Amino acid sequence: MSIEYEVKIQVEDLRDVEEKLRKLGAVFEDEVFESDFYIDLRPYKDLKASDEALRVRISYSSRLSRYVSELTYKGPKLTPNMKVRKEITVGVDDGKKLLQIFKELGFSYYVIKKKRRIYRYGPYKIFLDEVPNLGRFIEIEVEGVSSVEQFVNLMKRFVGLLKLSEEFISKSYLELFMERLKLMQSDIEAKALEEPAPEDSRSGG
To answer: What is the pTM of this model?
Structure first.
């Protein structure tokens, strides 16, 4: 078991960030295409209510020219605006068969897809993400830290180097997508209420 130390920042232009990373000397590692399947364990356990997650990830690695699958458990967040939480990951031979097992047991899942370019700079692992219907984001992990205080100091230093916003997002892509979906549904309902009732086409007299 390990602790994940990570922040997420939304940006307008990933190319600008990538250019800054290259100038710093960050090393490009891979471009991957990921499908994240978040398992819904209800009615046995409401993972959203407990701020936990169970995820099957199937990703295609351009560097390896093959698919890689893993199963990850994420515990409740330990800080309000950064993703600091327990994380347990195990590699699996066949992610699609694992999903089939969950399906046969009666569980459903939500899917988030993204294209991700991965860089490394010292203890930092940087993910440049394009997520359909959500936008462009940077996720930054810091490896080898032993406390939240150390993580915050290292993160602020690196974000300063890249001249990025410190408006960190602690929510997962699934949480952001569900929020957006809820807003879209509310907007549709509001517009429906605003539409005038059709006039009666029947003429009187």
So the answer is: 0.86
